[in-house]
Specification:
The chain contains 12 helices and 12 strands. Helix 4 links the parallel strand 4 and strand 5. The protein is globular, with a radius of gyration of 21 Å. Bound molecules: pyridoxal-5'-phosphate. The site of pyridoxal-5'-phosphate has 15 residues, from helix 2.
């Protein structure tokens, strides 16, 4: 009907589209695993926000990671990763890829001087994260890109913690997002995306279709709705996390706080030069007199003990138990992952309410 234009895009909740004779087949939607207008709208928005040529959405952030790795790596290839990154990505590279004859080298983010010497003619990809999950280490992105360019290696950044609006000044080939986190924001959807150079995305989209890792249109709609409040939420998450990081670092029962916005953070200056907002996640280590991190997670009341970040609710979890079990003990120790360390994803509650809950649990 003319004039009947919805301000909010409808959801194309269909698996199939009737094929018409008027349009070339290659320009028609015909099957949702291959393409769907609701997914397309989200992909266009993600490319625009991140200033990348093209994007492809996936059924989860982890599906985006495995989709990229399986698209770009073949038998005999080599990939460089870092200790300081999301556990399932690290496990995929170190435990699954070797079954397909793909080798890897795992470096420390703090040891980038060594990066170039580890690149071989077989190295296809440098896969890194910033800030890292769970302890908020910062990667020197300009340095990684300059080495990768010199050696003709593809750069892949997991940008979930920094969100969609940061790091746009860097010519990173591919950026992965877990849209489950800050993009959706409400903790009710699982989704992921990859954005970057059109030629690479074309290859990754083909693999996504082949793997069947398609996002459901209704989930895509919820992500698109989340994006409408994304920048306001990210700003508030950052403000509250900054307040809490400062208060916790002065608390007598807190031994250490990891937040890139704190002056004492090991990469404070690097973070300031790369990011405008430090985000809503921080990590901290409690004094052993408070008990272990796992017990602490059961003492908080307002804060929820669970996985994930970037939700409207404040979430907490022990870092060693959730993220360290594939790493050597001394690596965990060096990274600050121990039985007393926790990751806090700051929600949209009042900062005083969150702090009071942490304070009562610390007593
Ligand atoms: C959660 C997360 C992922 C995986 O995303 P899912 O949507 O849970 O599959 C990837 N990278 C980082 C940094 C994450 O925090």
């Amino acid at each position: 009907m003319p004039g009947n234009v919805p301000l909010v895009s409808p959801i194309y909740q269909t698996g199939k589209f009737a094929i018409t004779p008027d349009v070339p087949m290659s320009e028609q939607f015909f099957y949702t695993r291959v393409g769907n207008p609701t997914l397309k709208e989200l992909e266009l928005n993600l490319s625009e926000i991140q200033q990348k040529e093209d994007s492809v959405v996936f059924a989860s952030g982890v599906a985006a990671i495995s989709g990229v790795l399986l698209s770009l790596l073949s038998q005999g290839d080599h990939i460089i990763i870092f200790r300081e990154m999301y556990r399932p990505g690290r496990v995929m590279v170190r435990e699954t890829l070797p079954r397909f004859g793909i080798t890897s080298t795992m470096l420390k983010l703090g040891d980038l001087e060594q990066l170039e010497s580890h690149i071989t003619p077989q190295t296809k990809l440098i896969y890194f994260e910033s800030p890292s999950n769970p302890h908020l280490q910062i990667a020197d992105i300009a340095k990684i890109i300059s080495v990768a360019r010199k050696k003709n290696v593809i750069t892949l950044l997991d940008g979930t913690f920094a969100g969609l609006h940061q790091h746009r000044q860097y010519d990173i080939d591919l950026i992965i997002q877990s849209l489950t986190k800050f993009a959706n924001g409400h903790g009710d959807v699982i989704a992921g995306s990859v954005s970057g150079k059109a030629g690479l995305i074309k290859k990754i989209r083909q693999m996504s279709i082949g793997l069947g890792a398609t996002l459901d249109p209704h989930a895509a709609f919820l992500i698109s709705r989340g994006l409408k409040t994304y920048s306001m939420r990210y700003q508030r998450h950052t403000q509250t996390a900054t307040i809490l990081a400062e208060k916790l670092s002065q608390h007598p029962k807190v031994k250490k706080v990891y937040y890139p916005g704190l002056r004492g953070h090991e990469s404070y200056h690097l973070a300031q030069s790369q990011m405008q907002e430090m985000g809503g996640v921080l990590a901290f280590e409690i004094d052993p007199s408070c008990g272990e991190a796992l017990a602490f997670c059961h003492k908080v009341k307002l804060i929820q003990f669970t996985a994930s970040v970037g939700s409207i609710e404040t979430l907490i979890c022990p870092t060693l138990m959730f993220f360290g079990d594939d790493l050597a003990e001394d690596h965990c120790r060096e990274m600050g992952l121990n039985r007393y360390s926790l990751r806090l994803s700051v929600g949209l509650e009042h900062p005083d309410d969150i702090y009071h809950d942490l304070d009562q649990a610390l007593q």
